[in-house]
Design goal:
Two copies of one chain form a homodimer. Chain A has about 625 residues and is an alpha/beta fold. Chain A contains 21 helices and 16 strands. Chain A has an eight-stranded parallel β-barrel, surrounded by six helices. A four-stranded antiparallel beta sheet of chain A has the order 3-2-1-16. Chain A has a two-stranded antiparallel ribbon with strand order 4-5. The radius of gyration of chain A is 25 Å and the shape is globular. At the A-B interface, helix 10, helix 15, helix 16, helix 17 and helix 18 of A face helix 10, helix 15, helix 16, helix 17 and helix 18 of B.
């Protein structure tokens, strides 16, 4: 997986923090709004609102993972960390404050605070006692709706209220392949999905700054971006900027894949300043601690790393417990062997001593540690295929079956669990991956890397993988791990990260549309109406990347007057089909009003088409009217 | 559709031509090779051959539409045009030379030769007499195999010989959805596909410079790029460079969508210098001739334009004959109305006079004109959806049904025919487009624009559409019309054209893999082996865009020594999974050789896996051995 580096243009060398060190302010054309659930002022759900120039067009509210950084007057103090939106909820649950594990020299690669000091933000470190309910899964199974579940429910309803009130979007007519995406998300629905293991809310009790989100196939398809310091040099603010930049464009979770020195301290900056779940691969740090030699790994150093990171507030851990000794020979004749770093480390460890993986053998203990902080599992696909030739082979599926076995154990232990998936898979082999994962892992959320649908395009693997990601998202994958253009070639820079995130937002949104998400099409429709009406500013602002859309347009037609021009540079004023067809529409409607018959009449009148939606809207409003009130500023 | 403009960096103002005005020379890491069919020295089929650094790896030969421009010592004289590879074949068929229609002032927008003079290359203009067989369809129906069919057969077999001889690629295990892609393409197979109307070989008898190619779902999936002069200014060499640049990266056909002045003269330069089929939309020029007012269009000016362009050698015409008067009201309540330029022009014409389209009413006559030169039909989708909201609606499908009706007429008239398709279509509505097209149009080749799977990403519509293109290519679409990042926003530049072409090569190749094309995976496998072996140069050279792959790698590891380094900048030397797994492989194989059992054995030994392929290989070699001999230099 790619690990981005910071561009040279951003000032971020001073890790003492301050608003000038990371990108702040709203996305062009948007403003941050919060809505509180009636009666719960402490649950303030963020949205990004796009106002439109046509007074007949309501503003469009969209899901927004970007955190306080995109507020108009964002006041960010990296040293203090983000506000603890979850602090009162967690505090009320009565977990004991614990003395955190002392930082050891090896946690920072024996660099001490020389390169990067720890984030000075102070937090109470908590841990649940045995038997004390702590994970969202345990609460859900007990029938308890947590604040996180309420938050997620309302967050997922962005656009849905508009659809129900205004009957604006087309009826969702997707093919969901067995998913059950409801017309409206209630907190009880969220609880039920979490209790079934079909969704997770990655939310370490020590990550109080988190704005909760859900990963599950009956929610919006999510995307993950990877960050991490390079081995050579990286400052804390640089790493936070990578996070902020990723979520600005829509990353729902971020994995910190750092492998260098000072990663303990850098992680403290990332988590204290992250509104999204942070995932890690603890085996990377464990390996650093033993000098990089897989054979020196053991349970003690791994366990110690789990506790270290759980106390810091990491929300999910990739655990490659499915790489068993017996699976290793299945990879020996592959074209590209084992391409997962964690997978290859564990395979090496198993084979060298001809012994079973300690991750597999100690899985119960791993569960107990992770449960105490509500760290979710991301069961790693250490044997994912690294080439088209290796897709869906015996090694890959043997591991997946093991992950299914482990999922049940994790649930028994009270842990939230998702499953990682491939990799390189040609289009015709994508669907069986999804089907087998659902079957083997009891519908636990699937989280895939792409998949890349061909090997022949290094430099464009955001696209080879975006194709596979859109498809598997449609089939039921809950989260898509991005791939940048630099995959297989080098370290992604700022532009690559943005390209990767936007590509995956496309894949996720295309998947939501195809699944029949009831509100997904609202944004497409608003943008298409803007396009047809030549409201160029609205078209830019509704797009996934307003800045790029505007700059492309302005390359040929830079003047302000062109922003309202009824043509563009592609066809020029004379040949614009949209202009012609607008005139045409007026004529047809006038002729029809005059009673003139022009060939066959349309099969379904707009009134008929809207009838179904209006009925639904009435039902909803009858059941209690407006769900949200604007949050206090 | 997008119309690219030339970058400022290319010297191309001097339309007198010469090698310095267009991009020449091999793609990095490749060389052009020709192979002749045994006994037919006049049929020299071009390939691009990629030599690899590992002596155990055979060079990889790939399909190559780039023409003589990518020869090592390409000698290009734009004024003379390309060599007439088809001239002796056409000459032998005995068509009468005709006095070409005199150039009229309106052909060049009343600009004369002021801006761009006509290409001075002289050619005999031919036309078939009534009853004289001329189209590939007519020959195929009569059981006659043409030189074009032989050429196409051998061209399509790039990689197949290697697969059969070396049993190198994995067994094709795709899902073809009813396509029948054979293990080996014979000229008779090509004839049969053309005779069934399932494939076309767009090849105007007046385009003798053409290197013949086939479009059909049992052949490699093809891609089209659009070029065209902007209304403001454009020189001939500029336009030729757009063509050369597009085919360099893999465009199989090119549409000239020019709408400005001097388009007759510019077209002469394009066709005389094009090794790929050139398509046009004649209604654009017809509209220019009547001053841009759709209501002034009539059959006479349209017919005159058809003859003008057919004599010049255009290989296929987009004809929007499916836009009938009765369809117009079906579009009036669409979110984005009619987005096809030709469609909106014809709808305007029909509605204004409340009359049936002259393209529909005169369809027989259009067939007669096109047949006489073997201009193929590309039946235009004038009512394609321009937004997700309008996908698969009554207007779109009513037109498709009309196109099915017209396909049968065109075949009766002896014409080759393909069908254009959408547009904006969410993923779950893509497949029904393909199925309905096959059903309505008797399996005539489908040629779609994307489709774009969401409306929300202007600036990234190569990706929104690349997803849909890959899927519909898999389902059976024969040719994919590219979309560039500038779609909906402005004129694509050189980089945009390349990005569009590469994205569509990815989509087409992903589709070939998923369909189970028997040789498609050879390139993926060769690249993946190179990746696993850290043969960086081979990995770059096998990729769709060697220059970009190399430059991305070199950003972080620029030294020559890094090209053989057993790691990259993503993980560094210590954490490289490939390095670990290489060591692992050696160990496993050694242990197995020593008789040690490591868990379960692999389900299928490599010997077993190869058995099927070897059997096929034996059959082929038994039937006559090597099909190709190297062509005389």
């Amino acid at each position: 997986m790619n690990v981005p580096v910071l561009p040279k243009t951003v000032k971020a060398k001073d890790f003492s923090g301050g608003p000038e060190t990371v990108t702040t302010g709203p996305v062009t054309g948007s403003r941050k709004v919060y809505a509180s659930v009636a009666g719960r002022d402490d649950i303030r759900v963020p949205y990004r609102e796009i106002a439109l120039t046509d007074p007949n067009e309501a503003p469009v509210r969209i899901y927004d993972p970007s955190g306080p950084y995109t507020e108009t007057d964002a006041r960010i103090d990296l040293s203090a960390g983000l506000p603890g939106v979850r602090e009162p909820w967690i505090a009320a649950r009565g977990y004991a404050a614990v003395e955190p594990r002392a930082v050891k020299p090896e946690d920072n690669g024996f660099a001490g605070d020389k390169l990067v000091a720890a984030c000075p933000a102070e937090r109470v470190i908590r841990k649940a006692a045995p038997g004390q309910k702590v994970t969202q899964y345990e609460f859900a199974r007990a029938g308890i709706i947590t604040e996180e579940m309420i938050y997620v429910a309302h967050r997922e309803n962005a656009c849905r209220e508009a659809v129900l009130e205004r009957a604006e979007a087309a009826l969702a007519d997707g093919e969901s392949f067995g998913a059950s995406v409801p017309a409206f998300i209630t907190p009880e629905f969220v609880r039920d999905e979490v209790a079934r293991g079909r969704a997770i809310i990655p939310a370490n009790i020590n990550h109080t700054e988190l704005e909760p989100m859900a990963i599950g196939r009956n929610f919006l398809v999510k995307i993950n971006a990877n960050i991490g310091n390079s081995a050579v040099t990286s400052s804390a603010a640089e790493e936070v900027e990578k996070l902020v930049w990723s979520i600005r464009w829509g990353a729902d979770t971020v994995m910190d894949l750092s492998t260098g020195r000072n990663i303990h301290n850098i992680r403290s900056w990332i988590i204290r300043n992250s509104p999204v779940p942070i995932g890690t691969v603890p085996i990377y740090q464990a390996l650093e601690k033993v000098g990089g030699d897989p054979l020196k790994l053991d349970w003690e150093v791994f366990k110690d790393t789990l506790i270290e990171q759980a106390e810091q507030g990491v929300d999910y851990f990739t655990i490659h417990a499915g790489v068993r000794l017996a699976h290793v020979p299945l990879t020996a004749r592959r074209v590209t062997g084992i391409v997962s770093r964690g997978g290859s480390i564990m395979a090496r460890w198993c084979l060298a001593g001809h012994r079973e993986s300690f991750l597999y053998e100690r899985f119960d203990e791993i569960c107990d540690i992770m449960r105490a902080y509500d760290v979710s599992f991301s069961l790693g696909d250490g044997l994912r295929p690294g080439s088209i030739a290796d897709a869906n082979d015996a090694a890959q599926f043997a591991e997946l079956e093991t992950l299914g076995e482990l999922t049940k154990i994790a649930w028994d232990k009270g842990c939230q669990t998702m499953i990682e998936g491939p990799g390189h898979v040609p289009m015709h082999k994508v669907k069986v991956n999804m089907e087998k994962q659902l079957r083997e892992c009891g519908e636990a959320p699937f989280y895939t890397l792409g998949p890349l649908t061909t090997d022949v395009a290094p430099g464009y693997d955001h696209i080879t993988s975006g194709i596979g990601a859109a498809m598997i998202g449609w089939f039921g994958c809950a989260m898509l791990c991005y791939v940048t253009p630099k995959e297989h070639l080098g370290l992604p820079d700022r532009d690559d990260v943005k390209t990767g995130v936007i590509t995956y937002k496309i894949a996720a949104h295309a998947a939501d549309l195809a699944k029949g998400h009831p509100a997904a099409q609202l944004r497409d429709d608003a943008l298409s109406r803007a396009r047809f009406d030549f409201r160029w500013e609205d078209q830019f602002n509704l797009s996934l990347d307003p800045d790029t859309a505007r700059s492309y347009h302005d390359e040929t037609l830079p003047k302000d007057a062109h922003k309202v021009a009824h043509f563009c540079s592609m066809c020029g004023p004379k040949f614009c089909s949209m202009k012609i067809t607008q005139d045409l529409r007026a004529e047809v409607l006038a002729m029809e009003q005059a009673g003139q018959v022009i060939g066959a009449a349309p099969a379904l009148s707009p009134a008929e088409a809207e009838a179904g939606m209006r009925e639904k809207s009435r039902e909803f409003l009858a059941e209690g009217g407006k769900l949200y009130v604007d949050a206090a500023e």
